[in-house]
Design brief:
- By secondary structure, the chain is mainly α.
- The chain is built from 10 helices and no strands.
- The protein has a domain of about 150 residues: Tetracycline Repressor, domain 2.
- Helix content is about 70%, strand content about 0%.
Length: about 220
């Protein structure tokens, strides 16, 4: 049966959505096309009508995963407009996020894999990382005092955003790498304390939010 253009596009978007989850769960090289297409409820033969290669799918799936996480950050921040940065810290450095690789941060799940992928896949990560840094920089600016030297203040908040993202991603990666749940929890708490101190946040804790990584 001939598939309409609309149905073909819907199928393509479904494959990208499913691949964005399965790549986070298994890694780029940990799952083949057959299983990716099966996860989307489609045959492997349909793949080449929609994508130039597995790398093409990986680049689009990476972009989708980064966008999905960005929306979750924004949703967490919107629920606590008085302290958006604290809300995102609590959301990200949360034991529930540690357990949900398929729906969690793609940088922590696939960052080490991305290093060995082609330029298009790395570009998807770069674009997403810049968006995350933009959000963090804005929240640091809102939380900070008004500075006399605006240029210096902008550079400082940018540096804080980079350090915060690096700390959060690194902590989540380390927490996932260990079997000891108590140690994993301490890693997340220590990282949360560090970034909260940098932002001047005192009250937020990793377990304070009820919002999981797939909210």
């Amino acid at each position: 049966m001939r598939v309409s253009r609309l149905q073909a596009e819907q199928n393509k978007q479904k494959v990208i959505d499913v691949a964005s989850q399965l790549f986070r769960e298994h890694g780029f090289d940990g799952i083949g096309l057959k299983d990716l297409m099966h996860g989307a409820g489609l045959t492997q033969g349909a793949f080449y009508k929609q994508f130039a290669s597995k790398d093409d799918l990986a680049a689009q799936a990476s972009a989708r995963a980064m966008q999905s996480t960005q929306r979750r950050w924004e949703a967490a921040a919107a629920k606590n407009p008085q302290d958006p940065l604290g809300a995102v810290i609590a959301f990200y450095l949360n034991p529930a996020h540690r357990e949900k690789r398929m729906e969690g941060c793609p940088i922590a799940a696939l960052g080490s894999d991305a290093v060995r992928q082609n330029a298009n896949i790395r570009a998807s990560f770069e674009t997403g990382i810049k968006e995350y840094l933009h959000l963090l920089t804005g929240w640091f600016s809102e939380a900070g005092d008004v500075a006399v030297d605006e240029a210096a203040a902008a550079a400082e908040t940018s540096d804080k955003a980079m350090a915060t993202l690096s700390t959060m991603v690194g902590a989540l990666l380390l927490a996932r790498a260990v079997n000891d749940e108590q140690l994993a929890g301490r890693i997340l708490q220590a990282a949360a304390g560090n970034v909260q101190a940098a932002a001047g946040i005192r009250d937020a804790q990793p377990g304070d939010t009820q919002q999981g990584p797939h909210s």
